[in-house]
From TrEMBL:
InterPro entries: LD-transpeptidase_YkuD-like, LD_TPept_scaffold_dom, Peptidoglycan-bd-like, PGBD-like_sf, PGBDSf. The keyword 4Fe-4S does not apply. Residues 1-25 form the signal peptide. This is Peptidoglycan-binding protein. Residues 225-280 form the Peptidoglycan binding-like domain. Residues 58-194 form the L,D-transpeptidase scaffold domain. Keywords: Signal. It comes from Mesorhizobium marinum.
Length: 461
């Protein structure tokens, strides 16, 4: 993606240089060009973007090579491309972002002005919006500089001018936005769920469930079941045809409750107990907020993890080994509470550590800023997992030098390290909402309050 954007930038600059040779004052953007030239020469040029302004010299170079001809407007008003970019900014809410992050109201107000200075201001604001919107989609709005306790993933290195050049060169601004998006299918699925939940909220049909009261066992009759049926149907656990029915917790609703419990990380008993009622009582507005928070976390993951990797979700206490692009093994994270405050980060599993005197004699060595090993027991800078033997066997067979055997490593008398021929990517994150291939959306609790931190920084409250 980075190379493609840099190529687009090069193409734009080359085309601008060629066009500049035949440009004349008769063109219909020469008047605004003079306003832009004056703004840059006086030091008054302002894109509305802190990031773009920090790289203003490079932005200026794009305008210089065009002889300050505007990118987004003409002397008689905005180009079609300007309206297209504004359109993308106005629907940025589909990503859980806000149009006002990108000065959409001011941009829209300037769209109808004939004044050259206003059109110059509009051109600069659109360039700044391309930088901020593109960067937010590519790396997330909250980078390591703004939220180091949540996100420790280095951003994709794109200069502000690259975003402007890529947006200007794009045939379609939807293509520009798409090029910046996470290619992770889980991001796209979660966007779909955000739209679905937003429509349900707008309909006013999501019921309010009282978290108090006695549990509802299978076969029991309870007046609350009518609202619970509606919730289960809207959430996708119960067929819509059964949404309005009796107050009996019948076989169909028992199966639906089990589905609901599974999606919320609860024991799927089918009984509507206190924990299940508490999950049902969460307002849909809170779930929408949770989805938006986790879309941001998915943007931090805008990297190719490769066909083989280990993916750890601290919020779900789940460790997944992926081989050939498909999950091959799931094991439990045993010390999730001790690791609950780790930020999202990338690392590498580099080999196997032999520790004859340790409670767990074998461990996986990790290269990362926060974790040193994965073992059968926890400790400082150590991730503890269940069924370490299965995980080791899988990785030793795939990554260790030929002839390496787990049994031989276990019988070693002295500490040693066996390096993998190729390190295995490791990704550690904290995700409390995700959508599966089957269309189900899953939620997890957040006892450490991390969702609230991200929501505040995203100005969701």
């Amino acid at each position: 993606m980075t190379n493609g954007i840099r190529f687009a930038c090069s193409v734009l600059l080359a085309a601008a240089v060629a066009a500049n040779g035949v440009a004349s004052a008769a063109e219909d953007n020469a008047i605004v060009a003079e306003s832009l030239r004056a703004a840059f020469h006086s030091g008054a040029a302002d894109t509305g973007s802190d990031e773009a302004n920090a790289g203003l010299d490079a932005i200026r170079d794009i305008y210089v090579v065009r002889d300050f001809k505007p990118i987004w407007v003409r002397d008689n008003g905005p180009k079609t491309k300007a309206r297209a970019l504004l359109g993308e900014l106005k629907i940025s809410g589909v990503h859980g972002l806000s149009p006002e992050f990108y000065h959409a109201s001011e941009i829209e107000a300037l769209m109808g002005s004939p004044a050259p200075d206003d059109l110059a201001r509009l051109d600069m604001l659109l360039s700044g919006a391309a930088v901020d919107f593109g960067g937010d989609l590519a790396n997330g709005r909250l980078g390591p500089d703004t939220a180091p306790s949540e996100n420790a993933v280095p951003p994709i290195p794109l200069a502000p001018a690259d975003y402007v050049a890529a947006a200007e060169a794009a045939e379609n601004l939807r293509d520009f936005a798409g090029a910046m998006l996470s290619e992770d299918y889980r991001y796209v699925r979660l966007i779909a769920k955000l739209g679905e939940f937003s429509r349900i909220e707008a309909s006013g049909r999501w019921p309010a469930i009282d978290a108090g009261g006695a549990a509802i066992a299978a076969g029991a009759e309870d007046a609350r079941m009518r609202d619970i049926r509606r919730l289960l149907a809207l959430a996708g656990d119960l067929p819509i045809a059964l949404m309005d029915g009796s107050a009996v917790h019948d076989e169909k609703t028992v199966q639906a409750v089990r589905s609901f419990q599974t999606r919320h990380g609860l024991d799927p008993t089918g009984t509507i107990d206190g924990a299940t009622l508490a999950a049902m009582a969460v307002p849909i507005s809170t779930r929408i907020r949770q989805i938006k928070v986790n879309l941001e976390r998915r943007r931090w993951q805008n990297r190719d993890l490769g066909e083989d990797n280990i993916y750890i979700n601290l919020a779900d206490a789940n460790v997944k080994i992926v081989h050939g692009g498909r999950p091959e093994l799931f094991v439990e994270l045993l010390n999730a509470p001790d690791l609950a405050l780790l930020p999202t980060f990338f690392g590498e599993i580099t080999g196997v550590e032999v520790r004859p005197s340790a409670a767990s004699p074998l461990a996986l060595t990790v290269r990362s800023p926060f974790v040193e090993r994965i073992a059968g027991e926890g400790g400082e800078r150590t991730i503890a997992v269940s069924d370490l033997s299965a995980l080791l066997a899988e990785l030793v067979a795939a990554r260790a030098p030929a002839g390496t055997a787990t049994d031989a490593l276990l019988s070693a008398n002295a500490p040693a390290t066996v390096a993998f021929e190729t390190p295995l990517p490791l990704f550690v994150t904290f995700v409390t909402a995700w959508a599966n291939r089957d269309g189900t959306v899953h939620f997890r609790g957040d006892g450490s309050g991390r969702d609230a931190v991200v929501a505040r920084l995203l100005q969701l409250d």
